[in-house]
Amino acid sequence: MASKKKSDADAALHKELLHSMILQRRFEEKVAEAYALGKIGGFCHLYIGQEAVSTGILSLLRDDDYVLTTYRDHGQAIVRGMSPRSVMAELFGRIDGCSRGKGGSMHLFDRHVNFLGGHGIVGAHVPMATGVGFAIKYRGGDQVCICFMGEAAVNNGAFHESLNMAGLWRLPVVYVIENNRYGMGTAVDRASSIKDMYKRGDTYSIANAVVDGQDVFAVRDAAQEAIDRARKDYAPTLLEVRTYRFMGHSMSDAASGTYRTKDELEEYRKRDPITLLERRMLADKTLSKSDVAGMEAEIAATVQDSWDFAENSPEPPLEALYEDVYVETTT
Amino acid sequence: MPIITYRDALNQALREEMHRDDRVFLMGEEVGVYNGAYKVSKGLLEEFGEMRVVDTPITELGFTGVGVGSAMVGLRPVIEFMTWNFALLAIDQIVNAAAKMLYMSGGQFPMPMVFRGPNGAALQLSAQHSQAWESWLAHIPGLKVVTPGTPYDAKGLLKSAIRDDNPVIVLEAEMLYNTKGEVPDEDYVIPLGKAELKREGDHCSIITSGKMALVAMQAADQMAKEGIRIDVVDLRTIRPMDVDAITASVRKTNRAVVLEEGWEVCGIGAQVVDYIQRDCFDHLDAPVLRVHQADVPMPYAKAIEKAAKPDVAKTIAAVNKVMYR
Questions:
Q1: ipTM exceeding 0.90?
Q2: What is the CATH number of the domain that holds B178?
Q3: What is the CATH number of domain A2-313?
Q4: pLDDT tens across B160-170, in order?
Q5: Is the residue at B299 inside a domain?
Q6: Within this chain, do residues B175 and B222 fall inside the same structural domain, yes or no?
Q7: Nearest CB neighbour to B69, from listed A132, A164, A323
Q8: Could you give phi then psi for residue B289, rounded to 5 degrees?
Q9: Could you give the residue numbers annotated as active site of B?
Q10: Is the model's pLDDT at B251 over the cut of 70?
Q11: For B105, which of A99, A124, A162 is closest by C-beta distance?
Q12: Where would I find the H helices in chain A?
């Protein structure tokens, strides 16, 4: 009976993970469509291919934990619990967007779920996440701060300065390097003197590990260890998650042809994190084809709803232009 | 009223505010064990402990970002730069993060934090350690910038800065730390954005701020001996600037000299002159003149360093010129 309960619980969890990953994928596909129609402007970076990273890690967090990330933030925002409506409305530049139309794709924020952005300067949010870790320790709390970054950020000073302080002061931060192999169009082996990013943790006495980012269970296992370390011992971790983006860096470059070959892309597509999970669940019979169809239909409706909501939300009024530059001091 | 140094006035402000609010902490290089590179934080480590008086590695970008992150979740950091010249390494966190977080999050994340330290030239520190950054920082919407010129202003403005829910830049000065003045023991604040008429006169206005207010007062004293009465407006806050105080003075005197420590091009003085030409055009009896640093990096050798800096003699010369004397 006990093992039946456990396997039921596992099956339910696996479905949740799959749902979370498919939701991100379909959402981003819809974003691409809206971008092509001119409904979304500016820079826009899709998360397609990396969904197991956000789902694997954020599915382990408590509500009072914190998340900071880069400008490739749509997927993580949704997994963290922001509504697809508020994210899509932000991308559309509407008043009901999570940042009231002031931030756009790169600056998603939601204080209700401790999603602290959405940052556009490579590496710059790494010290901020370190500061969140500092604040947790300052208050004697047991929360954890997750800091996502691309592998290109580890060559910049902000990263190293942060890891030094986190190692020195023992801060509860999990630094997650999403190594998708390209910093914009520059391959990792053309930018980093060290190929194993996680080893940079050794320099700062920080526990480190590397994990297959296309396998959501592997990501979860590695992340759980890191989160426990932060929560129980105020100890940071540098976790390298090896993944791949199936789209271009942003909406302005092709998925392949310039800095990476079509063959390479196709090779990585064989390890699509969603396909891998689906296949596994179908094989162990925790998922049926009709389950998938049902899930897809429900997600399609959710995503379409986010589009409709965004389209019907007004643009920020002109008086909003001068709002939020300063806050009135109340203390 | 007790007479204390500018340095001790800052120390009082920090101590009082740290007692008042346990979210306030001080972070920077040498602020703890060393008691501060300029002893501004003397005794604070002993009093508040190492979680609240935090010695950092020499890593301006990093610890400034730590401050930003901690402010995002409700702490109230005071980030000390050993000099504002070093803050250039952290300018991304000040300009791209602290100044913009509230706006780009649609009002969700205020940044209740202070960035402070000595600004401008001291003596013979040469090019990299002698720069006045007011105009760079005041250029940025989202920041407030204050330049206390006296011990009284230093305490009152720093306390206001710490209590403000926005990021506030406090530009102190190495040459001011030992200056003395009357400072009340009790709690008081000076509102941000308010200038002070430091001396009244009706012949000519000198609009200035911070350390240069001392220069302006000395120039005014000397000119008083010749019967020239100068109105000295100490802006105290560069952003938001007290335009009413500027125009009230110039409408009274009909002549103005704008005195600043930094360089001429795109300087604070250019902004002040713009306000004057817009609001006082019909009141002016002479073109407004500016006194500022020579348009060169600061040299080391004494004589040419002196020649590069704005001073009393240059200020008096400018006043004489606008008075057609």
A1: yes
A2: 3.40.50.970
A3: 3.40.50.970
A4: 999 999 999 99
A5: yes
A6: no
A7: A132
A8: -110, 155
A9: 60, 129
A10: yes
A11: A99
A12: 2-36, 51-58, 74-79, 84-91, 125-138, 157-169, 200-203, 216-233, 262-269, 273-283, 289-312
